[in-house]
Design brief:
The complex is a heterodimer. Chain A has helices at 20-30, 32-49, 51-54, 86-122, 124-139, 142-153, 157-184, 187-194, 199-235, 247-255, 263-290. By secondary structure, chain A is mainly alpha-helical. Chain A has one domain (23-57, 73-294): MetI-like (MetI-like fold, Orthogonal Bundle), CATH 1.10.3720.10. Chain B is an alpha/beta fold. Chain B has a domain at 1-75 and 210-331: Rossmann fold. Helix content of chain B is 32%, strand content 24%. Chain B is built from eleven helices and twelve strands. Chain B has helices at 47-54, 82-91, 110-121, 126-139, 145-148, 158-170, 188-205, 216-222, 240-245, 250-257, 325-330; strands at residues 3-16, 19-32, 36-40, 63-72, 75-76, 93-96, 176-180, 208-213, 225-230, 233-239, 308-311, 314-316. In chain B, a hairpin with a 2-residue loop joins strand 1 and strand 2. Classes of the chains: A mainly alpha, B alpha/beta. The interface between A and B is medium-sized, with 27 and 35 residues.
């Protein structure tokens, strides 16, 4: 920084300013696994976004002269039973998987966080009612509910996000409520109320920001679960509609031909596994980085 | 002098599984404008609950203010609608807490926490509020105020944080500051500094102060009048000097005797008050202090517990204490 005009006061000792999130970032950087996980996610995301630049094939392009090939120069991961390039399908499939992972979490946050925060902050009868509703949602078998929602709402990919999100928000609602309730008794909340803060203000400004750490962690862990849920849906045939590729659908299709060409199962399965691990490692690292007890 | 705050027969009970706890039981006190009074007593005697009752921040349930009046500036705070009460909190009555380490929001800069109060009560815009915050932080003796305003609470020491709390408390020029054991969690050297700071600020701004403490050394120096609380009741009150030199309740006598003194040989053992504070769920009949009282006599159970004047402005509930000093010394 070159601020020539500013005459620095000699006596002032200025330390670099640490923001809360800056500190967390410093700690996260020290965690190699988390950084590795984060890097994998970024690479996969970039690959998904720029897939047309990486592979010359489209995900539905068939070359009936080269069916069920093993890895070759032209098709690095081989082709499937319809002559489609496996690498291209994997890359485009990453779009589906990542989109499912991210958009479901947005839905989860939009529903779960406000409900949990309100239940925790207001308490009493409202809390009781909201939480019993959450219990009902929680007790209902997830996959069954998703199948039901898919049947009701029909087939577009946004409906997959919605269906998975509508099932997964209960965890966040419970977590947020718990966080808010434990924060509610803290001195600084009383202090904020003594200074005249309204319930809304205290909730938005003090309760929710202080609960964000654990929520972010759980969201990160939720992403692989959502990806896996989509893979499971595609596996039983109610996921994305062919020929749109998704990793789950690719595994299902490849499973039928596992003895003919095991690559068709191997590569998508590996991709799901690696991406889920990456999110899990990142979530693990975030949990350590955002834990206030480790704050240094 | 007109009273700024009059607490009359305030009764706050907590309804727990073990029974009804009379945390504050018919307490009355008053504070004149600009005056500093002290509320003294051991842990669990109801000091903090009585203060939180004034601003109506008793956790409810299990607590409930059962009866009484809190007249502040002509209005009964206990009858005020919630939104008006919110303007009183922070705007007219501010509070400083015991534990500076936990009474600031860890995810907001300290400056932001003060500016938000200014924006709410003084309707300032961001820039003005920030400038005012820096001025306040300077006023409470924080060096590098404009940088410190951008610091997070975990960058500051306990003493600094308590200074921030004081700055926040005075930010909206309240008429009354309730300081709930403001120095208990701090170093002895810092304690004196902060109390001096609070006193000079209160004097400059004409703010009245309720100093809640169990440190009798603090009381003598900073408060004009003292209220001694025991088991949810006020057992003795009067001008600080009178209560110090001529305590008329055995509990006050015990408290004074248990304070270490510099003017006595160091080998002298401190005289603690024997026994435990009574269980507030099942108080004995009559005086709550009888089980620990060294002046106990058979007549104690039957006595009414009214605050009666023993000398001008000095009241006690103890019927033996009221007899006078000489009489008392004989027993």
């Amino acid at each position: 920084m070159t601020e020539a005009a500013a005459p620095a006061p000699v006596a002032t000792v200025t330390r670099p300013r640490h923001t809360l999130w800056g500190d967390a970032w410093t700690r996260l950087r020290r965690n190699r696994l988390a950084i590795a996980g984060g890097s994998v996610i970024i690479v996969v995301a970039l690959a998904a976004i720029f897939s047309p630049l990486i592979t010359p094939y489209g995900f539905a392009d068939q070359d009936l002269n080269s069916i069920m090939l093993g890895p070759t120069l032209a098709h690095p991961l081989g082709t499937d039973e319809l002559g489609r390039d496996v690498l291209a399908r994997l890359l485009y499939g990453a779009r589906t998987s990542l989109a499912v992972g991210v958009f479901t979490q947005i839905i989860v946050v939009l529903i779960g966080l406000p409900l949990g925060a309100i239940a925790g902050a207001v308490g009493g009868r409202l809390d009781n009612m909201l939480m019993r509703f959450v219990d009902v949602m929680y007790a209902f078998p997830d996959i069954l509910l998703i199948i039901l929602l898919r049947a009701v709402f029909g087939g577009s990919i946004f409906m997959i996000f919605l269906a998975i999100g509508l099932v997964a928000w209960v965890n966040i609602a419970r977590l947020t409520r718990g966080q808010v309730m434990s924060l509610k008794g803290r001195d600084f909340i009383t202090a904020a109320r003594v200074m005249g803060g309204s319930q809304r203000y205290v909730m938005l400004r003090h309760l929710v920001p202080n609960s964000l750490g654990p929520i972010i962690v759980v969201l990160t862990f939720n992403v692989p679960r959502a990806i896996f849920a989509e893979a499971a849906l595609s596996y039983i045939g109610i996921g994305v509609r062919p020929p749109t590729p998704s990793w789950g659908a690719m595994i299902r299709d490849g499973y039928d031909l596992i003895f003919a060409n095991s690559n068709l199962v191997l590569f998508p399965a590996l991709s799901v596994g690696v991406l889920m691990l990456a999110f899990t490692f990142l979530g693990d690292g975030l949990r350590d980085a955002l834990d206030p007890r480790l704050r240094r | 002098m007109a009273d700024l705050l009059q607490v009359r027969d305030l009764t706050t009970h907590f309804f727990t599984r073990d029974g009804e706890v009379g945390a504050v039981d018919g307490v009355s006190y008053s504070v004149a404008a600009g005056e500093t009074i002290a509320l003294v007593g051991e842990s669990g005697c109801g000091k903090t609950v009585s203060a939180l009752s004034i601003v109506r921040l008793i956790p409810e349930p299990p607590g409930r203010i059962l009866s009484g009046k809190v007249l502040f500036d002509g209005a009964d705070l206990l009858q005020l609608p919630a939104d008006e009460m919110r303007l009183v909190r922070g705007g007219k009555i501010a509070m400083i807490f015991q534990e500076p380490m936990t009474s600031l929001n860890p995810v907001l800069t300290v400056g932001r926490q003060i500016t938000e109060a200014l924006e709410l009560h003084q309707h300032m815009n961001r820039q003005d509020a920030f400038r005012e915050t820096v001025r306040l932080l300077k006023l409470v003796g924080i060096p590098n105020a404009d940088q410190r305003a951008r610091s997070y609470p975990h960058h500051l020491s306990g003493g600094m944080r308590q200074r921030v709390m004081i700055a926040m408390a005075i930010s909206c020029k309240p008429k009354l500051i309730i300081a709930d054991e403001p120095t208990t969690a701090l170093d002895v050297t810092i304690q004196a500094q902060l109390l001096e700071l609070m006193r000079s600020i209160a004097r400059d701004l004409g703010t009245a102060t309720i100093l809640i403490t169990h440190n009798l050394g603090v009381v003598a120096r900073y408060a004009r009048r003292v209220y001694v609380m025991y088991a949810g009741k006020i057992v003795e009150h009067g001008p600080a000097l009178a209560v110090y030199h001529d305590p008329r309740h055995p509990y006050t006598v015990g408290l004074l005797a248990s304070v270490p003194r510099l003017d006595e040989p160091r080998k002298t053992r401190l005289a603690p008050i024997e026994g435990q504070p009574p269980d507030l769920v099942s108080l004995p009949r009559g005086c709550a202090f009888q089980a620990r009282c060294s002046f106990y006599s058979g007549g104690c159970e039957g006595q009414a517990l009214d605050l009666l004047e023993v000398s001008p402005g000095h009241y006690s509930v103890c019927w033996q204490g009221r007899k006078g000093r000489e009489e008392w010394a004989k027993t």
